[in-house]
Amino acid sequence: METTLTRPPLNDLRIVGGNLALDFVNTRAGPRHAPADTEWLSSYEDFAAWSRHAGVGHPSAAPSETAPRPAAIAAFARVQACRDDMYEIFLALGDGSAPPDPALRRLHLAYIEALAQGQLTGGTEGCAWTWDPGSGLLAPLWPIVAAAVELLTHGTTGHIKPCHACRSLFIDHSKNGSRRWCSMDDCGKAAKIARYLRRRSDARGQEESDAHGQQEIT
Fold it and tell me: What secondary structure letter does DSSP report for 68?
């Protein structure tokens, strides 16, 4: 049976990944070891809105407003495919496994395309790749692809972790590398409440067992 995905407001999405590519991956959510049940990107318009929210989209109008509908649909298919590849790659790293080669190859090709669409700009503090966010439907995707490759080649991939409660991925910047939750306000809080309720239930069960044993003795 296919899982029905909910589409909550964009403002409900927490930015917790610590990297643009991980935040992009986290736009599809759900329980840790179960199918996704929440989708923030159901259309190209959703992606355009999220990209502006993340700071890589056009600040005023999305290109999809004037683009032919088939073009927007095709662009969104590319966006979803890239997100799927990134999820496979970073989830594998978070679980201590090697990333799958097919997903890496597809990301490699997307990165080549991203560089072809970008411009290397320089300043007193060094050079960086930049993209015109209003130049085309896929313009917001290229900085995300670049962020993914930068994380894979120069980042701290050993600090990429999956949340213990949901599908979200994040970079663990804690001093002792003990972070377990994507957000203490969400998954962390829910886990603490669940542990508290389990302890209460166990204690109540022990009390009832002790009381029953005492009755048998008397």
Answer: -
State yes or no: pLDDT of 196 exceeds 50. no
Looking at residue 184, what DSSP letter applies? I
The structure tokens 């993914």 sit at 148
Give residue for tokens 């900085």.
143
* Number of other CB atoms surrounding residue 86 within 10 Å: 26
> Helix crossing, 141-154 with 69-94: angle to 10°?
20
Q: Please say whether the beta carbons of 139 and 131 come within 8 A.
A: yes
Average pLDDT over residues 73-89: 97
Q: ∠ at Cα 10 (189, 65), nearest 5°?
A: 170
11: left (phi over 0), alpha (psi -120 to 50) or beta: alpha
What residues have CB less than 8 Å from 56, skipping those under 6 apart? 20, 131, 133, 140, 143, 144
What is the pTM (predicted TM-score) of this model?
Answer: 0.82
Closest CA to 21 of 84, 96, 106, 105: 84
